[in-house]
Specification:
Elements (H helix, E strand, L loop, with lengths): L1 H27 L2 E7 L1 H6 L1 H10 L4 E7 L4 H13 L7 E5 L3 H6 L3 E2 L7 H5 L10 E2 L2 E2 L2 E4 L4 E5 L10 H13 L5 E4 L6 H13 L5 E2 L4 E2 L4 H15 L12 H9 L3 E6 L2 H6 L10 E4 L11 E2 L3 E6 L5 H11 L2 H11 L12 H6 L3 H9 L1 E2 L7 H16 L5 H21 L2
Helix pairs in contact: 8-9, 16-17
Length: about 425
């Protein structure tokens, strides 16, 4: 009897020990965090992720899912996972134009519990645009991006400041046979064209859309002037006819070859222009887009930042990972290794960065001059409308007046339909 009791007690003790060990093992297993990033960022942050996992060994394990190369394909992947139910991602590296759509759909968790005013004050002013929706912080900036006007320092002593000056100096240099074309930009029917138009529209004193009032300005005098100027660039020969097929890379290659005086592109192009295979290496300056004398020169904001998805099981751990990846040291490394523009204000005055990059002061200036694309959940639809109508102007299918009136009317229809379904 005693032996039987002994074995019962032993078995009970054994089972209890196994249960306790299993419970302990589960409790000590690191929290798994998965962040979806576009391919270039996933590659650039590899060493940062490794360092985070080393520093948080046993507590948090960060995994980065390498998304597609195309920006919109990343958004499609994220949205598909959200619509199907519980997303496998805890956080997402999000483009500035996606935020209103994601936040309005209820897919994001506000970051306010983890971000205090001191942290907000550490960000360069322009980099804080596009991070809030309905008074809540949903996105924390990783890198800044802004449209820049690149100019040849070996062809001119200073860059053109107005639309008229740009055409004048381009035609002069072309007439002298020093260049084939004056100016290249993103004229293809895609998001880059919307970014180009916003800068030119600002330069003529116009406004695309006021989200709070839904006031559309695409048929305004300034808008017609902006569209007419872009068309004139092509018709006058300042820009090649092929510019209507140019995205960022085609624009870069044309300028890099030494046959063009001016280029509109993003900060990444600077690093490419300094490589040994660049025919303009050492002869390039940057500034913001041209504007009429009465209006301001701006740069379209095109930044990336982290958001936590509502379905995350571990938002606290996700917030820790985001804090690490966006830290001053992390952003400094990303700038030195991959030329990603930082968002921390102090880095624009960092002696090491200033000694290695003459472009940094101009980036700081451009960041202070940024303009945000319309902050609306319907942005993708209204941008598509603008792109299609601008393309019809460049290809001669529509007049400026007809195309911009059509863009105005169709944008209003989209906004009105959305109001009626609320």
């Amino acid at each position: 009897m005693k032996r039987r009791t002994f074995w019962k007690i032993a078995l009970l003790f054994s089972l209890t020990s196994v249960a306790l060990f299993a419970s302990w093992a589960l409790s000590t297993r690191p929290v798994q965090i998965n962040i979806l990033m576009p391919a270039p960022f996933a590659e650039s942050t590899t060493d940062l992720v490794q360092k985070f996992n080393k520093d948080h060994h046993g507590s948090i394990q960060l995994q980065v899912t390498r998304g597609p190369l195309e920006t919109e394909a990343v958004s499609d992947l994220a949205i598909s996972s959200l619509l199907l139910g519980k997303s496998p991602f805890d956080a997402l590296l999000i483009d500035v134009t996606w935020l209103p759509k994601y936040a309005a759909a209820g897919w994001l968790i506000p970051l306010d519990p983890w971000i205090d005013q001191q942290q907000i004050d550490s960000i360069a002013p322009g980099a804080m645009l596009g991070n809030n929706f309905d008074g809540k912080l949903y996105r924390w900036p990783l890198v800044a991006d802004m449209g820049l006007l690149y100019w040849r320092t070996d062809l001119m002593s200073e860059p053109p400041r107005t639309p008229e000056e740009l055409i004048k100096v381009s035609l002069k240099l072309q007439k002298e046979g020093r260049i084939a074309f004056g100016y290249v930009w993103q004229g293809r029917q895609y998001e880059g064209l919307s970014c180009v138009f916003l800068e030119v529209l600002d330069g003529f004193g116009g406004q695309w859309l006021e989200p709070e009032t839904d006031n559309v300005g695409l048929d305004s005098s300034a808008s017609l002037q902006a569209a007419s100027w872009l068309r004139e660039l092509i018709s006058s020969g300042v820009s090649p006819e092929a510019v209507i097929n140019y995205a960022e890379n085609e624009t870069l290659q044309a300028f890099k070859s030494g046959d063009v005086a001016l280029m509109r592109n993003w900060p990444y192009a600077w690093g490419e222009l300094q490589k040994p295979n660049s025919d303009v290496r050492g002869n390039v300056g940057v500034t913001t887009m041209v504007a009429t004398a009465a209006n301001r020169s701006t740069s379209t904001l095109g930044s990336w930042g982290f958001s936590i998805l509502k379905g995350s099981s571990n938002p606290q751990a996700a917030a820790e990972a985001i804090a690490f990846l966006t830290s001053t040291s992390a952003q400094k490394r990303l700038f030195l290794n991959d030329s990603y523009t930082p968002t921390k204000a102090e880095l624009f005055k960092d002696p090491e960065l200033l000694s290695k990059s003459q472009i940094l002061p101009e980036l700081a200036n451009a960041l202070q001059s940024t303009d945000q694309r319309p902050a609306t959940p319907l942005y993708a639809q209204i941008s598509d409308v603008l792109q299609r109508n601008l393309s019809s102007i460049f290809t001669g299918q529509s007049t400026v007046s007809d195309a911009m009136s059509n863009a105005q009317a169709n944008t209003k229809k989209i906004l009105m339909a959305a109001r009626e379904t609320k």
